[in-house]
Amino acid sequence: MYPSKDKYQNMWLNVVLIPLLLSSIEGKTAASRKKVCIIGAGVSGLATVKRFSEHTDEFKPIVFEKQSDVGGLWSYTESTTVDEHGLPVHSSVYKNLRTNIPKELMAWPDYRNFTGDDRSSVPHHMVLEYLRNYTAHFNLRQFIEFDTLVEHVRPLNVQTEDWQQTRWLVKTRNLKTQKRKHTVCNGIAIANGHYTKGNVPEIPGIENFRGPIIHSHVYRHPEDFAGKTVTILGAWISGVDIALDISPYVKKIYLSSRHEKRNSKLPSNIEQVPNVIEANGNELIMSNGSTITSDAFIFCTGYLPEFPFLDENCGIRVEANHVIPLYKQMINAEHPSMAVIGLPTADSIFLMPYVQSQFFVALLQGRVKLPTHHEMIKDAYTLPPGAPEDKWHAVNAYQWTYNEELAKATGNIQLPPSYYKDGIHLYEAYRDTHLATFREVRFVLNPNGTFHLENLVEDYETE
Asked: How far is it, in rounded angstroms, from Cα 424 to Cα 351?
């Protein structure tokens, strides 16, 4: 008995024609998706690829990460010179570092599973664990090419009338095989981190200082300064943290700053002094004319952004600590399909890319109407409200208004719940007056949305 003609037709449809049609449809869908290259798989890169991964019907995200794992800055290494590939060490994390923002307010709203002990300030390895868990939870590794260095980025064609038609050429090198690859994409998200290249201000005569002189980028162990008198230039949070870390080991610490003294109790061997402006051997001259003598010197003077892989035709340049021309602190005003994610300093560096990446997705989707080129350039040269004259990317407390501005421009951005803003303000206010002990308190978020800090002399609670 032979199969009927209808059965042959059904077999032909099921085995041959339908798979061909599906393959054709999938091919067209894949071809219509916009390829977006993301440089870096640290905090900013992971936040960005997560957002693009929610729209794989429209985008094909590819992340290039030069390290062997996610984490970026939070991938601690004992080395202070080069990494396993012979490249300059990326991480500025030191051995005893603990977070200065509660883990409850660092965790992204879409994944709050931040493990740790009762204290809210956690060691750096727990931050790395959180980022790894975040990557696994949302299956983001499928988009990441590890051990891959971005060597060059340039626009292939510049479309002034329709910037979305601009294409980018990204040249990469696999650091294990040394094989090079070229990738053409529709959009670029630069998330390479901005806490690696130390800012070292010039101090006349410092070259004659006899003793260790380092930047906080290469600081790792407090024991290295045992028994010494140490001067730390820069009394913002990193300078204070390192001072507290070495305090049990050293003879004396001079915490030097051009700003007013910190209004907080500190260990007895930490003395706050004016800004060091000159050196005469190991004698340091301060802005008020007085002098101190020191055995070691640590620059805690911040970092400078750098983008060594960008071709000059990308239109991005760095003048001192100012990256220009960035509209809304992130969009390349010359070529808006390129964004720099996570650049501004803010109350919460985790929440910055959480919001910025959503804006960039919306922009590439066509849901954001950009102003004129002139208006974008003007915005790029506008200081954030409350920022010092030389701090173009110091968003800080303005972050929350900035978030709302981005949300308004898109019409649909998931903003962090209000307790992030209120909680960080409460925690920072306590931190600034309890610099030596603030890490011993616990941030408690209640089911009804209220929160408080435990183990304080006075209990705080707010709506």
From this structure: 11
Confirm whether pTM is higher than 0.85: yes
Answer yes or no: are the C-beta atoms of 252 and 318 closer than 8 Å: no
The pLDDT value given to residue 283: 98
68-118 pLDDT, tens digit per residue, is: 999 999 999 999 999 999 999 999 999 999 999 999 999 999 999 998 777
| Residues 155/314, Cβ–Cβ less than 8 Å | yes
Identify the bridge partners of residue 462 per DSSP, sorted by sequence position: 451
Higher pLDDT, 2 or 171: 171
Token pair in block for residue 14 = 């099921």
Contacts for 150 with CB less than 8 Å, ≥ 6 apart? 39, 64, 66, 170, 171, 172, 192, 309
Decide the pairing of beta strands 270-273 and 252-256. parallel
- The full DSSP string for 153-178 is EEEEE--SS-GGG-EEEEEEEETTT-
Residue 433's Cβ-side half-sphere holds a number of Cα atoms within 13 Å equal to 7
Q: Is 55 exposed, middle or buried (0-12, 13-18, 19+ CB in 10 A)?
A: middle
Sequence-distant (6+) residues with CB within 8 A of 311 are 152, 153, 154, 155
The pair of structure tokens assigned to 200 is: 């070292």
Strand 213-215 with 296-299, pairing: parallel
CB atoms within 10 A of CB 287: 14
Residue 232's contacts (CB-CB under 8 Å, 6 or more residues apart) are 239, 242, 243, 253, 254, 255, 256, 298, 300
